[in-house]
Amino acid sequence: MSILMNSKNLGLDKKYGISLEFLIMPWEDLLPAVASAGQGVDIAFVSLSDYLAKEKNLNSSGDDPVLFIYPSWSFHGGGFITFNDAVPEINAQSINNQDAIRKFLRFRFGVQRHSCNHMLLWALARKAGIKLSAISMTDITFNDAVLAAENGTVDIAGIGQQMEALNGHGRVVLTMDTARIADMAGFICKKSVYAKRKKEINAFIKIWFDCVNYVLNDIDHHSTVALAWLKSNASTPYTIDQFKRALSREYFPKSAKDVQEEMISNKGRFSIEEAGNLCNQYLIDAGAIKSAEPIPQIITVQQ
Predict the structure, then answer these.
(1) Which of 217, 220, 255, 296 is packed most tightly, with the most Cβ within 10 A?
(2) How many whole angstroms separate alpha carbon 254 and alpha carbon 260?
């Protein structure tokens, strides 16, 4: 969201002739807000794994389903932190060591179910031949998980960004990069909204690309608006160096061409088919779905 805040100061709403209103709400509330006719949310970001886990229930009745229409970034910066000195680190040297993994998985975890970190925990357990259900785990949001780890209610917390650990003198003990896992995120909207507002949605995605390009092309000088927004709205205030590190842990396509080559194409580094197949396997094993969900059909964006 912080990157999109540049749309106003860049005059992009006027450039593309649409009116933008940003509603701030917790990540876990975005999907139901779009699905609910009373929330007034036309379009939102959501994790592909979260969408696939909830799509069937959300779209079980009626003929106006919530659609995952377009990928926006791929996140590989999440992971687990601890404030407990007894917790070992899983790193490049131990990621394939079953004994080290089993020792790590004996601790108590605070992690949001169906999040990228829940999928990371599943992938780690699979390496050691351990069922996800055998792990001591509390289903908890990112922010609450950090607090629980700080006060010792859990030993290890799943986080969205690693600043929470570094700012609180904790340790990062496992990352998505170490496990070679990434979680795709993208735009969702109802079928009826896309049918009625296709031109506006196309313009909104162009605004997203313009904001991404503006920030990434000169992070040192183009981060003022994003940092101010994060200071007012995020759980963790960011310095410019912390903001750079956070952005380095995500892949942001800068154009529709980038999306096509890197996220839609089966040969792309962050292929939606590969990501969707991994998510489906994880969700089936986790008991969230009984059979694989179809990989979302991505719309065409006119540049």
Answers:
(1) 296
(2) 11
Count of C-beta atoms within a 10 Å radius of residue 109: 25
| C-alpha span between 186 and 235 (Å, rounded) | 22
User: Which amino acid, residue 185?
Assistant: A
216-255 pLDDT, tens digit per residue, is 999 999 999 999 999 998 777 789 998 998 898 899 999 9
Domain ranges for the chain, please list them. Answer: 3-75+184-285, 79-179
The rounded distance, in Å, linking the Cα atoms of 286 and 132 is: 7
Whole-number Cα distances in Å, 196 to 70, 190, 228:
17, 10, 34
CA distances from 296 to 49, 69, 153, 184 (A): 11, 7, 38, 12
Architecture of domain 3-75+184-285: 3-Layer(aba) Sandwich (3.40)
Residues 6+ apart with CB under 8 A from 195: none
φ, ψ for residue 189, nearest 5 deg: -160, 170
CATH number of 79-179: 3.40.190.10
- Cβ atoms of 118 and 207 within 8 Å: the answer is no
Length of the chain: 303
pLDDT > 60? residue 121: yes
